[in-house]
Amino acid sequence: MKCEAYALFRRQFSEIEGLQKASTLSYYADPLPRGVALYVREESSLGTKAESCVCPDLSVSYAAKLLQLACENNFGLGAWLDLLNDQGIRYQLVHAV
After folding, report:
1. Exposure on the CB side of residue 74, measured as CA atoms within 13 A
2. Cβ partners under 8 Å of residue 47, min gap 6
3. Is 26 helix (H, G, I), strand (E, B) or coil?
4. In this structure, are residues 27 and 70 in contact, taking their beta carbons and an 8 Å threshold?
5. Which of 19, 31, 73, 96 sits in a 20 to 30 Å window from 1, CA-based?
6. What is the pTM of this model?
């Protein structure tokens, strides 16, 4: 999928020695002919992990609000899908690395 990054939110975490590596969580959406593709990516010195899904019934404006909520409340990999489930949003997981 080619991402046009309609909604882009980033959250950075600093390194806390012995507890966490510095990392960045990125949240973005790609409008599709029918629905929206959502992406969450975590980058750190350990590498990059990503998850994405397609939400066929979701509007881009609502997707942007969901991604903002996920970012501001630190819904990381895996947990952001719980947000979709809690909101009753239908999705198909496309990519998880």
Report:
1. 3
2. none
3. strand
4. yes
5. 73
6. 0.86
pLDDT digit string (tens) for 47-82?
Answer: 999 999 999 999 999 999 999 999 999 999 989 999
Tell me, what's the pLDDT at 1?
A: 44
- Please name the helix (run of DSSP H) or strand (run of DSSP E) that holds residue 84, with its range, or none: helix 79-86
φ, ψ at 74 (rounded to 5°)? 55, 45
Q: Which two tokens stand for residue 4?
A: 């046009």
Q: Is the pLDDT of residue 6 over 80?
A: no
Residue 84 to residue 71: CA distance in whole angstroms: 13
What distance separates the 2 farthest-apart alpha carbons in the chain? 46
| Tokens at 71, concatenated | 């970012």
